[in-house]
Design goal:
By secondary structure, the chain is of the alpha/beta class. It has 13 helices and 11 strands. The chain has 2 domains: about 15-125 and about 230-325, D-Maltodextrin-Binding Protein, domain 2; about 130-225, D-Maltodextrin-Binding Protein, domain 2. It has helices at about 15-35, 60, 70, 85-95, 105-110, 160-170, 190-195, 205-210, 235-240, 245-265, 265-275, 280-285, 300-315, and strands spanning about 50-55, 75-85, 100-105, 115-125, 130-135, 150-155, 180, 200-205, 215-220, 230-235, 290-295. α6 (about 160-170) links the parallel β6 and β7. α1 crosses α4, α5 (about 105-110) crosses α13 and α8 (about 205-210) crosses α12. The model is unreliable at about 1-45 (pLDDT under 50).
């Protein structure tokens, strides 16, 4: 839905955006399958189309804020979602959306693959919303007990894999000694509670649900090691090139949303409940650090470059991508 009154509103925002998400995702996946490249839009007044995720990052929660219209100025914003991350990225790459969110590790991986992204805001937190949790009945009490045990992650090279590598850096256990199991997050909780896996290396709502499980034990979180992996907001390079002022306006809106969440953290937990989180999970999420929006200035780029070097060291990517060429300092 546009942040301006461009058209009549026959149904509520959430209903319309959910319907649009289904259509956009289908178009996105079809375009990617056919190998089509996103087409530049010639209309200078085109809206900024945001594919928002079913997580409480600020590019998701800002969509209903009354200050969004004023902050964005002449730029209208259309939100479609909630998407799962894979469909959101496909929507942008196929030209059916302009902006979305991801983790800094995934962003680095995208750049290493040569994908045309531009990052414009870091959503920084201390790291307590990512970590490793031992399953109930596993008998695991420390990281050193993970040798030979099954640890679930979403995908190789993703946040869970990064957490596992970072957590084991200063232990007697090598990552190669762990039985790493790739698994859809929709299967995490059932596997975690039934003994199919011994531990979970994950983040965000998945981590909170695991920690809230009776008998589970948090082994480590991102505050216990030198964590560089946080959230990041990205747009297609094409959109950033043609509409830099719109991207800067969205950065300012995210800063306002971050400031609002510092005063009222229920912005985050309410969003998770909207997306189906249980009361127990929401209570655990409420204990996590409230993120802040930071610019990708020299300090922000240095953090991304440090993580990119780690990705090379861990074997996730071959070479460090050009971070400077794929980031905008919107505070300038």
């Amino acid at each position: 839905m546009s942040s301006k009154s461009l058209m009549s509103r026959p149904m509520p925002r959430l209903a319309r955006t959910a319907a649009a998400a289904v259509s956009a995702a289908a178009l996105a996946l079809a375009a990617c399958a056919c190998g089509e490249q996103p087409q530049a839009r010639s209309d200078g007044d085109a809206p900024m189309r945001v594919a928002y995720l079913s997580t409480a990052n600020y590019l998701t929660t800002v969509r209903d804020e009354p200050f969004l219209d004023e902050t964005m100025g002449a730029t209208d914003v259309e939100f479609t979602g909630p998407y799962n991350p894979t469909d959101a990225y496909a929507a942008v790459l196929s030209g059916n959306a302009d902006a979305t969110s991801t983790g800094t590790g995934s962003f680095i991986d995208f750049l290493a693959q040569g994908q045309p992204w531009m990052a414009f805001a870091i959503e920084y937190y201390e790291g307590d919303s990512q970590g490793i949790v031992a399953a109930p009945g596993s008998g695991i009490t420390s990281l050193n007990n993970l040798k030979g045990r099954k640890v679930a992650i979403i995908k190789r090279g993703g946040t869970g894999d990064y957490v596992l590598h970072k957590a084991l850096e200063h232990t007697d256990v090598d990552v190669e000694d762990v039985d790493v199991v790739e698994m859809s997050p929709s299967n995490f909780q059932a596997a975690f509670t039934s003994g199919q896996i011994d531990a979970l290396s994950s983040f965000d709502q998945n981590l909170a649900a695991a920690v809230a499980t009776p008998g589970a034990k948090l082994l480590i979180d991102g505050e216990d090691y030198d964590n560089h992996n946080v959230s990041i907001h990205i747009v297609s390079k094409d959109f950033a090139t043609r509409h830099p002022e719109a991207v800067k306006a969205m950065y300012r809106a995210l800063v306002k949303e971050s400031e609002a969440a510092q005063r009222r953290p229920t912005i985050i937990t309410d969003a998770y409940k909207e997306f189906g989180a249980s009361d127990e999970t929401a209570e655990q999420i409420a204990q996590f650090d409230v993120p802040k929006i930071l610019p990708i200035d020299a300090q922000g780029r240095a953090m991304l470059e440090a993580q990119a070097k780690e990705y090379v060291d861990f074997g996730f990517i071959d070479t460090t991508p050009d971070i400077a060429a794929a980031t905008m300092d919107c505070s300038a």
